[in-house]
Specification:
The protein has three helices and five strands; from the N terminus they run E-E-H-E-E-H-E-H. Strands 2-1-5-3-4 form a five-stranded mixed beta sheet. The longest helix is centred in the last third of the chain and has 14 residues. The radius of gyration is 14 Å and the shape is globular. It has one domain. With 113 residues, it is an alpha+beta fold. Helix 1 packs antiparallel against helix 2.
């Protein structure tokens, strides 16, 4: 299980983690989420689908959640992780200052292909 967690103030490379156990990964993600002040942040979460052909790369992130609600994000993460094999999980969560920055990132992500 691969997880990318990026704070809105980034120092160095974007942190990427690997877990052998889904429960350990979920606990780590939920701890990271709970450390955020969601009155001052917006989180963007998505699952990366790898091994796609060049023609299909626009589908690498099929669904993207943008929220400032920790419960909604935790539910999204748990449902996603429980529905796919641990080897296929490549989850990313990015923190932004506001919705404008978050949606700009989403547009850049989807339209870069």
């Amino acid at each position: 299980m691969k997880v990318t967690l990026c704070n809105k103030v980034l120092e160095g490379d974007i942190p990427r983690y690997e877990f052998e156990n889904k429960e350990e990964g979920i606990n780590f993600i939920e701890s990271w989420i709970s450390s955020k002040d969601l009155e001052e942040s917006v989180l963007v979460c998505f699952q990366n689908w790898s091994e796609l052909s060049i023609k299909e790369l626009r589908n690498e992130q099929r669904g993207i959640l943008v929220t400032h609600d920790d419960y909604e994000l935790s539910e999204y993460v748990e449902n996603l992780i429980s529905s796919i094999s641990i080897n296929e999980i490549d989850l990313a969560i990015f923190e932004f200052e506001n919705y404008q920055e978050a949606f700009k990132y989403c547009l850049d992500l989807k339209e870069s292909f």
